Amino acid sequence: MNGAAQAENIRPWPRAARRPLVLACLLTAMVAFPAGLQARCSLLMDASEARELADRVWRNESGGDDAKILWWNRGEAFASAGIGHFIWYPAGVDEPFQESFPELLAYLESRGVAMPAWLADAEARDCPWPTREVFLEQRAGEKAAQLRRLLLATVALQAAFMLARLESALDRMLATLPARDAAIIESRFCALAARRVGRYALVDYVNFKGEGINPDERYRGQGWGLKQVLEEMDDALPANEAFADAAGRVLARRVRNAPPARDEQRWLPGWLRRVESYRAE
Q1: pLDDT tens digits for range 187-198
Q2: What does the buried/exposed string (b/e) look like for 66-77 if buried means 16 or more CB atoms within 10 Å of the residue's CB?
């Protein structure tokens, strides 16, 4: 069966049916942390925690709504796809946000998932809808339908992909810092990783706003990723409280620094509600 036919036969899983498969893939993914990270602090999760993490991230991004697994927000120049609403740029779009959906597609393909024929060429995986208006006109079309089926059938692997991104985030962040600062960031990361709520916060935030090491992801020279939040933490507070406070400050600063035309203020209340979930188990 060719890739297009395999993709056509993918069907969304009922929510209850997805959970055991999500869990199995997550647990498989979580035993493969790089040696450096494993030596610093453990991020291993039990079955209940793994399932909860996947569901919480999906709810944070789209309320867990299957219809929103392929979306395009008002005011954005890109589509959002998957349970993590991974950024997907049309050809020719140049924005200061790291694109992640083609990386997800490559990850899925490496795990044996067949792509629809129109996504078979790994070098030509730009978003096929050039604008939000075109997307809205064509969201009931065959390409969108095929992609939704693929995404709903690979929820488990998408969750594993988010964990894989976090696996190497610490080393990449530390590599950008002098030794003294790196030790502080490492200590804060590991304090968060020691608690269930902290592990959720780390995975969710790095998926939500990135690592903070991409020089293009800056407004007025200031970033908003995981690195910036860890730098902003107050060590006098419990780690999860300090992380939630710092995330709120970093996101408010991003909105202040954003180009007025982006009108990011409209998103800030939702962003702040999201990071409030980092405070308690």
Answers
A1: 999 999 999 999
A2: beebbbbeeeeb
